Amino acid sequence: MLSWFDTNLVSILNGFAIGSLLFILAVGLSIVFGMMDVLNLAHGALYLVGAYFGYQFAGDTSSWLGFGTALGTAALVGVLAGGVLSSMTEPLARRPHLDQALLTLGVALVVAELLAIFYGNDVLRVRPPPGLNGSMQVFGNTYPTYRLALIGIGVLIAVAVFVVVERTTVGALVRASVADREMVATLGVDNRLVKLAVLGVGSGLAALAGVLGGPIYGAGPGLDERVLILALVVVVIGGLGSIKGAFVGALLIGQVESLGRALVPDLASFVLFGALALVLIVRPRGLFGAPKAAV
Amino acid sequence: MNPRPLRAIPMSRRRMLGLIGAGSVALAGTAACGGSVGGDTGGEGSGDPSGEAGGGPIKVGLVIPQAGIYTPLGVDMQNAWELWLEQNDGMLGGYTVETVIADEGEGPDTGVPAIQGVLQNDQVDVLVGIVNSATALGAADAVTEAQKVLVISNAGAAAITGEASSPYIWRSSFVNAQVVVPMAEYLAGNDIGPVYVMSADYAAGQEVVAGFISAFEAAGGTVAGQVLTPFMTTQDFQPFLSGIQSSGAAATFVFYAGGEAVSFVQQYAEFGLKDTIPLYGSGFLTEGGVLNGQQDAALGVQTSLHYSTEIDNEANAAFVEAYQAAYDALPTCYAVQTWDAANVLNRALAEAADLSGDAISEALGGLGEIEDSPRGPWSFNGQTPEQNFYLREVVEGDSGLINSVVEELGTYAQP
User: Fold this and answer.
1) B340 three-state secondary structure
2) Tens-digit pLDDT profile for chain A (295 aa)?
């Protein structure tokens, strides 16, 4: 057992790093879909925007200023983009999800294409800030320092999101909107403002994840689709609209993508969707999904 | 809310992308005239060339990826094609060239209709290009039926000039396994020790792995282990890197290209493997734009390929200089392959009796050695190049990373 643990330590550690990144990415998608009922397929494109910001400001040299600028710009642009998306999807609020999906998918395609025109089609690299750009020894294994830091950042953001949603008045409003939007509206709260705020924060987190994921995944065409699928899997496994669900789902998928692939490399393509299928069979609404009526 | 619609969404997105892809091909078809280069169809009066065969115009369909993951290759190919025409007064073998560019996209679903489009709608005389092997194989029947010559300037599947060969389909590039057999024999010959073999899991990767392992074992090498990683969905190679470490391998041999090559090389260094288990690869691992993404992580990586900008011959020096002057970038093997496609067509068209596929094919077959290629001399053997291969190492050049030539690995034909 101990030797098994020793052999797979790097994979387990890596699962946490990937899980952290997935949480930052997926929590926004989960809240927006679960709480606001907006299916935002442009979420992956927002990640990509963040990744390219990472390349823009931290692509050539490793510096805290560059990386910090990238993080700040990405968060700001993400929040603004979330606001735009919110107003764009507003007229479709009463229409089926497919209409929202088409709209946001269209936005995602346009954004991805514009990025490809501007930055070209090569995969670009984002450099971690100084101090985090090397590797260190973890129980005799070499492991990239940045990925260790990413685990910490993921936990910090998870705690922050959890406290805001579960322990503050704003959070209470958001949770109330999830439970019963009409009732919240009758109390005099404008639903659209809540949606605007949530979509803004969710999109900001997605763009932030793009910068944070940059040193691992880089920035390049097609990345938006791949992370969108991962985020959707996390959301479905965790249950819609649940912070706890997104957290557990992200950690689970992180381990599946890392440890799972290391243990059964021949089935690497299947472990992700195998885990998804398994969860859906056992818990059709996801691990922490609220048992509410279908919309 | 039922989770099921959610699962349907990536599917519908993919279908959507397919539709859009098909639409852009249709667009490319209708806008083909707009995409022409050197569209001097007149031909008369404009300095009659060698005179003997032909004169007059020839329509060439350049089928290259203009959208999707292979776009950088398409850019290199188009650059080389246009550079050749520019240096040769827009002529191939005495004919004034009108190029019709069609977008092959990522796969055969867009590529095959694009090829059919230029054959039927534009009535091209010759086809050049094609990155994706599945596209090349999918279009083989249409090309053969139309009796037009196709010079493939990238797609490396063995079957194209193997069991699915056609008298009209030629190749100026390489065969997947041909690129790695020299490396396998080199590694085995140097008693490198057990080698771990890794590749992306798709047709080309499987051909490379099979070709490498059989040549490596035949030359007395031992394989420490092998794994095929999911194609295009692997962003993080760490789970597979652990496998290399625990296998006790003395070296790693991999086949990756494009974005996967960037991630792999970068992570191989980050997880500390590069210093303990040297990395070898098929040349595409460090070819072209990927080096910019890999940066220092690529230093010292050794690969085998039929081209490097550092090959020491006159033709290459002139080619690299002209290409750099025109496009402010170093040429890649994709550029050279298309350059050579123009070169062999130039020679064949000068010999061919007319523009029929049979006449051009016959002329291509009689070409003998192409002595003025930037990659060094090569010749057609079974309609695909028999050519020299080079062991290359990534080093810091004057302006960024380059693939220096360590040694010549000898001449190889399709295995």
Assistant:
1) helix
2) 667 777 788 888 889 999 999 999 998 888 888 777 788 899 999 999 999 999 999 887 778 899 999 999 999 999 999 999 988 888 887 788 888 889 999 999 999 999 988 887 777 888 888 888 888 888 777 888 999 999 999 999 999 998 998 889 888 888 888 777 788 888 888 888 888 888 999 999 999 999 999 988 888 888 899 899 999 999 989 888 788 889 999 999 999 988 888 888 778 778 888 888 988 888 888 888 765 544 4
CA–CA min distance A8, chain B (Å): 8
Backbone angles phi, psi at B167, to 5 degrees: -60, -15
d(CA A280, CA A277): 5
A11, A220, A232: residue with CB nearest B238:
A11
Evaluate whether residue B8 is within a structural domain: no
Residues 99-158 of A with CB under 8 A from B: 101, 105, 109, 116, 120-125, 135, 141-144
User: Is residue B26 assigned to a domain?
Assistant: no
CATH of the domain at B109: 3.40.50.2300
Give the closest-approach CA distance of B75 to chain A in angstroms: 10
Interface probe for A, chosen from B17, B77, B238, B265 (most Cβ of A below 10 Å), is B238
Q: Do B183 and B170 share a structural domain? A: no
Say yes or no: B87 and B211 in one domain.
no
- Asked if A122 and B292 come within 8 Å (Cβ–Cβ), the reply is yes
**Residue B332 to residue B329: CA distance in whole angstroms:** 9
Same-domain check for residues B94 and B66? yes
* Of the candidates A130, A12, A128, A54, the residue with the CA atom closest to the CA atom of residue B266: A128
| Parallel/antiparallel/unpaired status of strands B169-171 and B149-152 | parallel
Q: What is the pTM of this model?
A: 0.78
How many distinct structural domains can be found in chain B?
A: 2
Contacts of A156 (CB under 8 A, 6+ apart): none
Asked if the C-beta of A234 comes within 8 angstroms of chain B's C-beta atoms, the answer is: no
Domains annotated for chain A, with CATH where assigned, are: 23-282 (1.10.3470)
- Residue of A14, A268, A285 with shortest CB distance to B229: A268
B393 and B378, same structural domain? Answer: no
Nearest to A258 among B3, B9, B238 (CB): B238
ipTM over 0.85: no
With contacts defined as CB-CB under 8 Å, which chain A residues touch B10?
Answer: 225, 228-229, 232
Q: Is residue B414 helix, strand or coil?
A: coil
- Sign of the Cα torsion B261, B267, B269, B273 reads negative
Q: Are residues B81 and B168 in the same domain?
A: yes
Specify if B135 maps to a domain: yes
A6–chain B nearest CA distance, Å: 11
**How far B160 CA sits from the closest chain A CA (Å)?**
27
